[in-house]
Amino acid sequence: MSPLFDQHGRPLEYLRLAVTDRCNLRCFYCMPEEGIRYTPRHDLLSYEEMLRLTGLLATLGVRKVRLTGGEPFVRRNLVYFMERLAQLPGIEDLSLTTNGVLTAPHVPALARMGVKAVNLSLDTLDRARFASITRRDELPRVMQTLYALLEAGIQVKINAVVMDGQNIADLIPLADLSRTLPVDVRFIEEMPFNGGSHAAGPASLPWNHVRIRRHLAGHFGELTPLAGSVGATATDYAIAGHQGRVGIIAAYSRTFCGSCNRLRLTAEGGIKTCLYDQGVLDVRALLRGGHDDEQLVAALAAAFRFRAANGFEAEQQRPLHQLSFESMATIGG
């Protein structure tokens, strides 16, 4: 089949696949303390449905799959599913985003199946602040996962959301991990997808990508920009004397939209062609409605032909712009 392009000429090559909306942490920037209303299990896509859709997308040019959640390892038999994903023709890059709490015992299996990279969510190295941000005292288990991944030779990218008044004191210690460890430490602008946990918007984003870079440079000296790959969301920098790198993701400022090559599949079967859109296709209804592969491909192609040019356009097209009532766990990151 011919590769899929959107109407702006961008190829769709990268699938972010949410296997669950459930999570074992309660990070306040993602959801309220009591959690969110989870999708009933029978409404979640089955592994077989995910495999069928991913296989179809691979014939249309998708080469990279990243599993997200919620927390992927909350779902049972995840490793078995990943092994089957890794065997799909056309899938060249299988990776994972995790909070690390349940991950360490599965690291050998990830290495055996050829997982190339793991994004590890880690907003602070301070145990008390970790417990405050996530509402769970699990930092030791996350650090165990970090070192297990490095020992297994799996590339680690640490994702830290930058939150005013919460973890600013942690930016330098987190970045300093790249001094002695071969890790990428990436700082992410806070976004409004918090499930109604608190108000978020332009007025609550004093730490944008410009200020984050200035803060890091003020401590480490010059940050040397590095060439990025097509579709990359992070702007990466080298610091003299560091093994690893630091990166900044302008997730709210949305400076990288022009080269976006990704789409998202939510755990309940919604296709999103932008993090900020309301969803463009209910693929679960098609899968369970008896549609054949040709009909599925036609529906996917139609959805991509009307893709927003960037995150701002996608946000404007949402009804009532109720972004703050959606959780990152629901949309899959």
UniProtKB/TrEMBL annotation:
Residues 7-233 form the Radical SAM core domain. It holds the Pfam family Radical_SAM. Its EC number is 4.1.99.22. It catalyses: GTP + AH2 + S-adenosyl-L-methionine = (8S)-3',8-cyclo-7,8-dihydroguanosine 5'-triphosphate + 5'-deoxyadenosine + L-methionine + A + H(+). Its cofactor is [4Fe-4S] cluster. GO terms for biological process: Mo-molybdopterin cofactor biosynthetic process. PROSITE patterns: MOAA_NIFB_PQQE, RADICAL_SAM. This is GTP 3',8-cyclase. It comes from Hymenobacter montanus.
